[in-house]
Amino acid sequence: MKVPVGFIAKLWSFISFLPFFFLLLTLGILKGIIIGPVAAVIMVVGNSSVAIGLWPAHFFWTYYCVIKTKRIGWVLKMLLIMFLVLPLVLWPVVAVAGSLLGGVGYGFFAPVFATFEVIGTDHKDKCFHCFVDGCYSTLEGSCMVVRDFADICFHSYFSFMDDLSEEMPADEKPVDIRLSKLPKCLFIIPVAIAADVPLITVVALYKSPYMLIIGWKRLLEDLIGREGPFLETVCVPFAGLAIMLWPLAVVGAVIASLISSFGLAAYSAIIVHQEDSVKFGFAYVVSVVSLFDEYTNDLLYLREGSCFPRPRYRENMNMHTSDGLDRRNSNGNDFRNEKESTRGSRLVSQRSRTLKHALQQYTPVQVWDWLFKSCEVNGRILFRDGLINVKDIEECIVKGKCKKLGIKLPAWSILQCLLASAKSESCGLVISDEMELTRTNLPRDKVFEWFIGPLLIMKEQIKGLELSEHEEMCLRKLVMRYKNEKPEDWDDSSFPSSDHVRRAQLQSVIRRLQGIVGSLSRMPTFRRRFRNLVKVLYLEALQAGIIASQDGGGSKSRLSGQGSGPVGEVGLVVAKGNLVSEDMV
What we know:
69% helix, two-stranded antiparallel ribbon, 18 helices, mainly alpha, two-stranded antiparallel sheet, 585 residues
């Protein structure tokens, strides 16, 4: 469908779109009303049962690990013991309330969005799919949410607390606060909350009409002119849905501002502790309102700067973050050149927003999918070469002990990516033949930035080591079977280099990789998707004859042998479809 040109054509496109949109919307709302309560009940009952059932264990284990850990000094430890009571007591209430809100929202809106998404599919009978799509998938998604929540509460939480209570390295100092600074820190918190929370909330409420009007104006322009995200015909129905739901987004932004204001205010205690000055704490209390006001102005393309004062709240502040800000607020005209140029480039033309499709911006889901697909492919290779055996799979599937396989296999997969990227001329990470992750196209997500940033540094370290092919081959075995704590651990590994410095550098890379994967393993969906990946390896081993059917009737299967033989590369299309693709949510 061609993009309409001229006022008449655009008006006719808009008018002809309305009946089609309202029919889809009515159908989606009916599906949401029917499916929503069932999905909400599943999430509320499931998540509440998990949170309430594990609450005694969480309460006891949190205090036990905080008391036991040596990573926290005794002053900070005493404060945590006193202040942890409130969040721990409120945790079941928050979990129940969050499950209720999330269940109602997901149960209602998921069928509505699924109804609109049918328009973009290639189904032959789209009318039938408009009625069916989003019903079963929403209920299945609710069950997955409960499962992932249970994994977080049971596995991720205890894994994190175990790390907290581990022995601290000799060269590491515990995190603590000075007792002499404690009264000043405690004094500034209520003052900051009393001042910043109302002011930040007022600023958010004042800017909310601008956000509503500017958002509606932008969406209507894109809808009528078929610009921006609504250039494609498939996306047109979502335009009307986005226009109707935009007030909810504005309300959510105001609520998020209210919640974040407590954290921004509490940060004043950190300023007081770091600067050892109540004066700087009060300066931060005043400045944070200006910072928030400037952020909202940038977000809504309003005027530069802020009308609120911004005193200096640190003794030594970087020129580009402090001096420029202070000068700008003092005379109102001295703006940062970099920010001004960035803002100007964004406002040159609203039509330029359609060009963002030319620059591929990867999403966290794409990177997440690559990791598990890479683990699946590399898992077959390691299984074929005997570096993964049936006992490892048995421990993961039957006993639920995936710590060894769940850390080493992803670490090995990421290491192969680093080795390939180091050999290439890429400035980023070559994660496939068609996909290259750089600092310009990586997901705009803070969590992924924390993980991908160190990987880019490790790639440069590996590139500087100039590994030989034999050394790369040996790393496969070293990652999966050997400890990597000190150079002597590789003495019987046949590693070609006897340089202890070189060994220590490689071991440091491997330890950091395993640490990154350990943190990734605590994220939602990781455990569920990794267990499904291991099931794929199990079925491949079953096809290859490593796992034999036993029991007289042949109805009982068990794991047998230690499996160092080759595993067939024949595809398990059915297995992959059932165990992996359904979880790419």
